[in-house]
Specification:
- It is a single chain.
- The chain folds into two domains: 349 residues, Jelly Rolls; 28 residues.
- The protein has a 17-stranded mixed beta sheet that branches.
- It has 382 residues and is an alpha+beta fold.
- It is built from three helices and 17 strands.
- It is globular.
- Strand 4 and strand 5 form a beta hairpin.
- The chain starts with a helix and ends with a helix.
Length: 382
């Protein structure tokens, strides 16, 4: 698969904005801010479909430029079977270090939490808190020495081909990738310290985030701003026909297990007619750095995509609010990390908040009344 990157490096930078000879529109969402060492987490439902690449990745802006050391970390969902690929891409020229994870179940059927841990001594990949890969020494050094300015958070969806991603057929469109939340924890003295969390609750593009408008890596689609939609506390990234961009309906509910000691909240099912709605399953899905800001054939980033940010723990230009100690904050809009899940998202089908408390109180009162009635019946019969 390395050739898919090397070919892109040989193309003139002007090709990054070339309109592909296709009728497919894809999508990319990314942060202008860069971050260094830390834990980068996102809860996602990746898009199903052969030839559909659905992704969560970290990207060093400018990596695609000739003579630049490439730095990128990928979760990639590949193929009709929703295989999960992890990949630390780095080098000058860039070298592929991909692996397919051995996970059970249909990896495109439900939300899972994906995390990168980037530290000076190791880089790890986790799915639902379980480490599935760890790279030490050479990989950690390559990122420590060459990505000192940090990397951006990216999500995207785009069409592949038989050489990478599978056999894409436009007849399966639309397909969707859903992002429930994303959060960042800085790393210091061997510990991860929560800094911010973005829950996409505002219904519009959050400050500090941007959408792509360049060709996807294999030049089979162009990212369209209309294919990034914020609906009911979720971000929806769509791949559609050019004349059918956008998303209307209800994102599939996120049945994320509630923290210990809390209840849950019900959620509505999806009314999206597209084929990539959620069902039930087990393990994680993936992501593709392949388009890392338009990486490879697409040419890294649209104007303004590589606005550099600060070091670990700083919110800088972003609007995420700081959590606990560490890091300077921008204009806070994002809600802080909390053990209370949002009522708009499903948590094991149980109710949270005032309605849940009222239901519990009703059950207690009803039980006491039933007990008193039973005692009166016993006395009357004696």
């Amino acid at each position: 698969m390395t050739h898919r990157w090397l070919v892109g490096l040989l193309l003139p930078a002007t090709l990054s904005l070339t309109t592909p000879a296709s009728a497919v529109s894809s999508a990319e969402l990314y942060q202008n801010q860069t971050y260094t060492y830390g834990r980068f987490e996102a809860r996602l439902l990746f898009a199903a479909g052969d030839g559909v690449i659905s992704s969560f990745f970290l990207w060093k802006p400018g990596s695609e430029m000739p003579g630049t050391f490439w730095n990128e970390l990928d979760f990639e969902k590949l193929g009709a079977g929703c295989r999960l690929q992890t990949n630390p891409l780095y080098g000058a020229p860039v070298v592929d270090h991909s692996r397919i994870a051995d996970l059970q179940g249909d990896l495109c059927a439900e939300y899972h939490t994906y995390a990168f841990e980037w530290t000076p001594t190791y880089i790890a990949y986790l799915v639902d808190g379980i480490e599935i890969r760890r790279d030490d020494e050479a990989t950690a050094t390559a990122f420590a020495a060459n990505a000192a300015g940090g990397m951006q958070i990216h999500f995207n969806i785009w069409p592949g081909d038989a050489s990478f991603g599978g056999n894409f057929n436009p007849a399966i469109l639309p397909v969707r990738q859903y992002v429930s939340w994303v959060q960042y924890s800085s790393y210091s003295a061997g510990a991860f310290v929560p800094q911010w969390r973005e829950d996409f609750a505002g219904g519009t593009l959050p400050s500090g985030w941007a959408v792509g408008n360049w060709a996807s890596p294999k030049n089979l689609s162009t990212h369209a701003a209309a294919n990034v939609v914020f609906a009911n506390g979720f971000t929806v990234l769509s791949m559609t026909a050019d004349n059918a961009t956008g998303f209307a309906g209800e994102p599939p509910p996120d049945n994320e297990p509630a923290p210990p000691g809390s209840g849950g909240a019900g959620g509505a099912g999806s009314s999206d007619p597209g084929p990539s709605t959620a069902g039930a399953s087990t393990s994680g899905a993936s992501a593709a750095g392949a388009s890392a800001a338009g990486a490879s054939a697409a040419g890294a980033s649209a104007p303004g995509a590589s606005a550099p940010g600060g070091a670990s723990g700083a919110s800088g230009a972003n609007d995420q609010s700081p959590i606990g100690a560490g890091g300077a904050a921008g204009a806070a809009r994002t809600e802080p990390l909390s053990t209370e899940p949002r009522g708009a998202k499903s948590r094991d089908g149980c109710s949270f908040g005032p309605h849940g408390a009222r239901d519990r109180a009703s059950l207690i009162v009803g039980g006491l009344l039933s007990l008193f009635a039973a005692r009166r019946r016993r006395r009357a019969s004696s």
